[in-house]
Every structure is written in structure tokens, then in C-alpha cells.
Write a structure and sequence with these properties.
Blueprint lengths: L5 H7 L15 H4 L31 E11 L5 E12 L19 E11 L4 E10 L5 E3 L5 E4 L2 E4 L6 E7 L2 E9 L4 E2 L5 E3 L7 E17 L5 E15 L9 E9 L4 E8 L10 E5 L6 E3 L4 E10 L5 E10 L8 E7 L5 E2 L5 E9 L5 E9 L6
Antiparallel strand pairs: 1-2, 1-13, 2-3, 3-4, 5-6, 6-7, 7-8, 8-9, 9-12, 10-12, 11-12, 12-13, 14-15, 14-23, 15-16, 16-17, 18-19, 19-20, 20-22, 21-22, 22-23
GO molecular function: hydrolase activity
Protein name: Hydrolase
Pfam families: CrtC, Lipocalin_9
């Protein structure tokens, strides 16, 4: 699902000043409102997806992002997790293809916002960073038709091939990772059209790469470099839309089970906290056809909350019950944050964190990531 509308904040909102408490941040509702999208294309009908081309940019749409998360293990059982998202926002429709606009090397049809985060469980460390970069002068961008996405020295490269590379930093941590998708892209929603609101065009084109093998290095702040391996997840969306008026935020789950099952579910929330009927997900078994998850098939209940240093309060443990599409045994899990404090300290605050998945006996059966927005009032 990733952060529908955060890019609206980039188009017309400067990073806010800290208040007397040192806390900055916009509400999600502030980031989603008021921007003119006239002239941009909208996701209003199904389309044919083409890979690897669709790993590349779609400049006719206002909002686009490349979102990656992963859980990693070191040689002695060290536990790491990471989050990287490259957000692209079109500044005005048609600029990307205008030859006059490109007479200057510093012309900037897009603004890029990039979020990175790293969790080092054993060091008790979590931090996030944010960059805003215009794509003029080659400072940021996405090569066409497909290949590389970058902002300064942070980059995701090799998207045209079978192996990718990801390089980024968070404070004094440096991550250099090789990525190899282990399954084909999965189209979300209805054949890749993910409806988020009641009107035509209140949607995104959305697919996932739910299981990506990772190997590489993490250099800690203290200078030690560790070899790591693990699993990552990539989501890709592009659209020209935001949340509907009756939606206040969402709870998004990307779960990788040890038996090969992958599950995505986003619960859109109304202002009163109740689930919205447009909540959706995907059931992705290892050796069977993936299927749409409807909200009536999923029961999601927060069971524990934690207050972040900002003062925002988020659920950090959930009870999850899913009736598999097409039948089969009901699956029941407890989803638990690896660390309670995983809020992103960015212009729009949200919680983006690594989780463990436990069965009814409390035994670990998988890992994943959860994204939570719309909890600014605790």
C-alpha cells in the first residue's frame, strides 16, 4: 500500500519547523489534501503490466514510489532490519517529456523524497533519515525505460536484470545489499488496479515483489562490518490520488511465513478507527495461485500499544486471523514488533517497523514489516 499521498506533501509543503518540544511532523490528513492534480494521468482502468519495464518510472502520473523493506541476520545471530523508499512527485504535468524544459541540465520535472531506516536489535538502535532532492543536474532520478533509481549516493540499481543492488546510509550505518527476487511480481487489487476511494481514478497501479533473497554487508556506526543474509519485500505503486475524506490512515502488513506463504493486507481506517470497506489484501502461497483478500476474511485486533519519543502512540502487537481464499484451515497469528520504537522521524510521521510472526503456541513462524499512519493524536 505504501503511503498513498505522502508525495502530496512534497509538492506543496516544506518540512515543518520543530515546536518547543523539538518534535516536527505533519498529520497524514494534512499531507493528503489540497494539491491540484489536473493534467496528470490517473489509475482509472486495468492495464497490462510488463516486466522488467514496470520496475522503471511512469512520469505521466503524479505520485510514484519504490518501497523496500527487509529482515537480515548476521553471522552470530545479530538481527537487523531496513526500510528504503524512493518517492517521486511530478511538479507539473507534461514537464518530463517537454524538450524545451530539458534545455537546461538543471530542469527538474520531479521532486524526490527518500526515506531510509535501519534497526540494529542487538545494539538497541533504530534511526531514520529523509532527503528532499530535485532531479535537476543528475542529483536524483529514475532511468528510462528501467535500470536505476537514485537520490545522491542512495541508489537501487540493476532493475532491468535478475539481480539488483541497494546502497544507502542511516546516520553512521552503511548498507550494501545484493537483491535477487525469488518469485514473480504479484499484482495487487484487481489485476493490479488497487481502488482506494469511491470515485474512478481514486486508485493506484500496484504490484509487489514479496520475496527477495538478500546478501550483503552492514557497517555499524562503531566501524565493524558484518556479512548479512535475509529476505526483502518490494512494493511498487504509481497514481494521482489520495485518501478519501472518510479515511484517516491505514495499517499495512507485509508478512513472509517460513512455509513460503506471503501475505499483504492493508486496513484503511475511518476517522472513528473502524475498518473501511475498501481495505484489501493478497494471499500468496508458495505453490498455489495468489488470491484477493477481502476485509470480511481478516480479523485484525491490536493488543498492545507503545508511545514513541515524539509522543505518538501506535499499536505494536496484533492478533491476526485469516480465512484463506478458496477454503482451508484458518490461520491465526500474533504479530509482534521487534522493537517498539520504530517511528519514522520524517516530515510526515508514521511507524514503519520489523515484526515477528508467532503461532498459537508462541513459536516464531515468520517475519515481516508493518506500516501505520494516522496515529498522530495518539
Amino acid at each position: 500500500m505504501l503511503l498513498v499521498g505522502l508525495l502530496a506533501a512534497c509538492g506543496g509543503v516544506e518540512p515543518p519547523e520543530a515546536d518547543d518540544s523539538g518534535v516536527t511532523g505533519l498529520r497524514v490528513s494534512e499531507a493528503l489534501g489540497g494539491e491540484d492534480t489536473t493534467g496528470f494521468r490517473r489509475a482509472d482502468a486495468p492495464r497490462a503490466f510488463e516486466f522488467p519495464r514496470d520496475h522503471g518510472p511512469h512520469p505521466g502520473f503524479r505520485n510514484e514510489w519504490w518501497y523496500l523493506t527487509g529482515n537480515l541476520d548476521g553471522p552470530e545471530g545479530e538481527r537487523f532490519a531496513f526500510h528504503v523508499t524512493f518517492f517521486r512527485v511530478g511538479l507539473a504535468p507534461g514537464l518530463a517529456g517537454d524538450p524545451v524544459w530539458h534545455e537546461s541540465a538543471w530542469a527538474s520535472p520531479d521532486l524526490w523524497m527518500v526515506h531510509t531506516a535501519v534497526l540494529d536489535r542487538d545494539a538497541g538502535f533504530h534511526a531514520s533519515e529523509e532527503r528532499f532532492v530535485r532531479d535537476g543536474g543528475g542529483l536524483a532520478g529514475a532511468t528510462e525505460p528501467v535500470g536505476r533509481v537514485w537520490a545522491e549516493d542512495w541508489e537501487l540499481a540493476g532493475l532491468e536484470g535478475a539481480r539488483w543492488t541497494l546502497r544507502f546510509t542511516v546516520e553512521d550505518y552503511v548498507l550494501s545489499l545484493d537483491l535477487e527476487p525469488a518469485r514473480e511480481p504479484v499484482l495487487q487489487g484487481e489485476a493490479g488496479l488497487s481502488q482506494k476511494g469511491p470515485e474512478p481514478g481514486d486508485a493506484s497501479y500496484y504490484y509487489s515483489m514479496p520475496r527477495i533473497a538478500v546478501a550483503g554487508e552492514v557497517r555499524r556506526a562503531a566501524g565493524a562490518t558484518l556479512d548479512v543474509t535475509g529476505q526483502a519485500w518490494m512494493d511498487r505503486e504509481w497514481s494521482t490520488s489520495a485518501l478519501a475524506e472518510d479515511q484517516a490512515g491505514w495499517d499495512w502488513f507485509a508478512l513472509q511465513l517460513d512455509d513460503g506463504l506471503d501475505v499483504m493486507y492493508y486496513q484503511l481506517r475511518r476517522p472513528d478507527g473502524t475498518p473501511h470497506e475498501l481495505s484489501k489484501g493478497r494471499w500468496m502461497p508458495a505453490n498455489a495461485q495468489d488470491a484477493l483478500l477481502e476485509p470480511e476474511q481478516v480479523q485484525l485486533e491490536p493488543t498492545r500499544y507503545a508511545t514513541q519519543p515524539s509522543g505518538n502512540r501506535y499499536p505494536v502487537e496484533w492478533s491476526m486471523r485469516i480465512e484463506p481464499p478458496g477454503g482451508g484451515p484458518v490461520r491465526e497469528w500474533t504479530v509482534v514488533a521487534v522493537r517498539d520504537e520504530q517511528e519514522m522521524d520524517t516530515v510526515v510521521r508514521y511507524w514503519e517497523g520489523a515484526v515477528d510472526i508467532l503461532d498459537a503456541d508462541g513459536e516464531p513462524v515468520g517475519r515481516g514489516f508493518v506500516e501505520l499512519t494516522g496515529y498522530e493524536d495518539g
